[in-house]
């Protein structure tokens, strides 16, 4: 056991939409009984690429005692694709190209912060 960053999923907020499954390149997240779950902590590298894609804000990372990340085991996972994930500009899916997850509201939040800051 070591202390490191790892993904934490709030089951109260999770709707089971599945959008976080394919951004996880390590295959650590699956939908089980309608909720997203980290199926094996050794598959989660704690980088948090899944965080931005969650429309419910259900994913975060936390530092805690857990097993070491197993890069070889993660690389051996079959990729899981979710066809519901598409580029909001061109409509490409993640089978066509790599998509970087981000919240659509992010631009609004940045605009609000900018207008509220002193000049
Ligand atoms: S993207 Fe968020 S709400 Fe959707 S399944 Fe994943 S954790 Fe749950």
How would you characterize the overall build of this protein?
- The chain has 2 domains: 1-80, Alpha-Beta Plaits; 86-119, no CATH class.
- It is of the alpha+beta class.
- It contains 2 helices and 4 strands.
- The strands form 2 sheets. Strands 1-4 form a two-stranded antiparallel ribbon.
- It starts with a strand and ends with a helix.
- Residues 106-119 have low confidence and may be disordered.
- The chain binds iron/sulfur cluster.
- Iron/sulfur cluster binds at residues 9, 14-20, 36, 53-54, 56, 58-59.
- Iron/sulfur cluster is lined by residues 9, 14-20, 36, 53-54, 56, 58-59.
Which small molecules are bound?
A: iron/sulfur cluster
Specify the biggest β-sheet.
2 strands, antiparallel
Number of helices: 2
Return the structural class: alpha+beta
Q: What's the CATH topology name of the largest domain?
A: Alpha-Beta Plaits
CATH class division of the largest domain: Alpha Beta
Order of helices and strands: EEEEHH
The total of beta strands comes to 4
In angstroms, what separates the terminal alpha carbons? 49 Å
Q: What shape does the CA trace take?
A: globular
* Range of helix content: 10-25%
